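To whoever is on call:

I kicked off a structure prediction for a single chain this morning and the downstream step that reads the tokens threw a length-mismatch warning. I double-checked the sequence; it's 186 residues and nothing unusual in it as far as I can see. Pasting both halves so you can look.
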Amino acid sequence: MILTVLVVDNLSPFTPQILDCLSQLQIDCASIKYSDIFEQDLQAADRIILSGRRKNDSATNSANSKVARYCYKNDLPLLGICYGAEIIAQTFGGSLRRMPRPIRGNLEIRPDRPNPITGDKKSISVFESHGLCVARLPEEFDRLAGSEYCPFEIFAHRAKKIFGLQFHPEKSGQDGLDVIERFVKL
């Protein structure tokens, strides 16, 4: 069975690197700009990835929330990266906060326990680039890892294959590639 991963392009400068990671993993993928997504695009995908974003606007938020709700309703695996994680949290009832100062650079995070996204790794090296972070998770979600900067670096829905990553796995070397591969193989 050939899996197809749809990357929702929120105009992040890192979206091409998400596609490169999927290509390295020999995964069939497509990227569609957030404003050009139609239900048939979602129906054709086996997995969805929400990219980061360049700017904050209501049209981007609305389009991504619709994708997140579609994935929830149709049990379609969803991975939110940075902004993608933030919009998943907001869509399902969580909240965000502005960080005291934006973070940009490499960081080591330690998963709270073995999980589907990091396996049994005790720590992973990740790249962060954001000024907001998830402050409160929605009710149906659990924390899988946090850091001194963000309490919810990795989170997951309790019953569905919906995951949020505050960091950029596409910029996180082998650990990031492993995270993407684990998501695709769910």
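Update from on-call: the warning came from a stale cache, not from the record. Cleared it. Sanity check on the structure: The mean pLDDT is 96.
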